[in-house]
Amino acid sequence: MTMMDADGIRVVVVSHGSATTIQGCLRRLLAARAVAEVVVVDNASDDDTVAKALALAEFEPRLRVQAHPDNPGFAAGCNAGALGCTLPWLAFVNPDCLIEADTFARLLAHARSAPDVGVLGCVQVDAAGIEDAAVRRRDPSLRALLRAGGARNAVYLPADGNALQRVDAISGALMLLPNAVFARVGGFDAGYRLHAEDLDLCRRVRAAGCVVAVANDASIVHLRGVSSRRRPLWVEWQKHRGMWRYFAKFEAQHTSLPLRALLWCALWVHCAIAAPRAWRRARLGALRDRSARA
Questions:
Q1: Which CATH superfamily is domain 9-223 in?
Q2: Phi first, then psi: what are they for 31, rounded to 5°?
Q3: I want to staple 75 with a disulfide (CB 3.0 to 4.6 A). Which of 7, 188, 194, 294 is the partner?
Q4: Range from 68-72, 132-136, 153-157, 284-288 carrying the lowest mean pLDDT
Q5: What gap in Å lies between CA 215 and CA 171, rounded to an integer?
């Protein structure tokens, strides 16, 4: 399976409690070259996310909004937004990402120069311009993650100096891939509610004979965690739940039963330690946001 030369991208944006960023995200997507359709899949937001998206859709025929009454998770939302796509390309973009007008044009140019690429991402920076290390990853090992005390030391990779860098996995905050590749691997695994579904997809794309890569010469702003601040303890639980699902799919069969039991206990001890820290970060972030608006 290879990247295709034709343009035409459907962008899927899965939102939940994203009222503060959704319009900025959508306006930039609609202004970007090669974007033919934008589908917002809202997973039961209890704020003005849907209303703000619909306000733009009223005047933009390329924009469609699917408002779900429940929240089946990010992966299921992505699959719903991709359903029925007839365009050659699919992109998945978080509602707190702000792309540039040429972001997808740059990515498509890279795809044409490396036709074996099956999933392509780009550099992501926060509002202060600090790069997110999670854009380039190795396949995670639960043993390595727990031994290293977290993902940064175990799976994150630095830039190698090339414009296009092959990696094991990229961040799901922005992914571009051929519609045919997405269909071939069966889309996202909807058993993940939040986190690790991007790692899973990248691994299956590679197993299908394609390459995962990052365009180091293309950059977007990712404000990160806007929705997560609303429910930090739930999000932290879902991170660890997703990591266990990933382990069960790709690593457990090579791990003895006693070690599996030990890793299960260690994972949830780590969750119990990480959850209060996530709550404090969310509180501090909310306070900073209120101070900025004052």
A1: Spore Coat Polysaccharide Biosynthesis Protein SpsA; Chain A (3.90.550.10)
A2: -90, -5
A3: 188
A4: 284-288
A5: 12
